[in-house]
Predict the structure.
Amino acid sequence: MPDNYLENQVNGEPKPLKKKTKWWVVAIDIFFLLVFLLVIAVSSNVIYLTSAYGEPFFVSGASMYPTLNSEGFKYIKEKDEYRPLTWNDIDNDDGDIVDYGWAKSKDKDNWRSDLHRYDIVITYYPKDYIDYSSNQLKSNASLKIKRLIGFPGETVKFERDDAFNPVWGKTTIIKPDGQEEVLPNLYDVEDFPDLPNGTKYLSRGITGARTLSLGEDEYFVMGDNRVGSHSEDSRTVGALKGNMLQGKAYVITGMRKLSVTIDGQGNKVKEPKLLLDKIRMPWNYKKLEYKI
């Protein structure tokens, strides 16, 4: 009979000791769980955005500053460092971090019927077409992003008026029935800070005073960065036909780094890199609709 027989009868069979789980094992499990949940959340959000809007877009240039790209970064290749984008960065190149968002285009939800004044649209210009009647684009055609100002049948009068607003000028809409509406300003001089070298925004001078009557199916667009030559828009290129408008931008969801290559014809090809450099949470998305 074993020596511990009576003890086992009284106290029961001894139970094996439980091994304590090491803290780092728990930490690894939690880490992978969080990564898994993050992947699920991001994937679900992309599926939602694709379903709700349909087309991602990125912003290149400062023509819509400070609405767009005011939180981006310019890559200084020689120093291998970044600095904040400014209203004077009229073009973006390889490595720059720019706004990335979602738009409706093509036949998505009949977005053309949802166009309002001050919406932000993605468009081609007349110069981008070989033959507009056949809708044939040049090989170096590039999309632009601007604010929608005037609609078919209206007359748009844009003028410099320092007393009204020195940086946005004065825009008057004359409707087909003769009624006039002066459009509100979204920005003032404090929204365009001095450059690091001390250059002031107003030193460039506002340009492009123009009065343009829009025909059937014609639109007038302008950038938000209106001083100097920072925005090429309807003040210089004229009215845009409806088919030139390719989409309506709805929301900025983050920022991406640009990849710039040269195609076989010597044209710059800009594309956003795969991963987001800055992610906005859904409750912090930057909505672009502004109805007046």
Notes: Residues 35 and 41 are 10 Å apart (CA to CA).
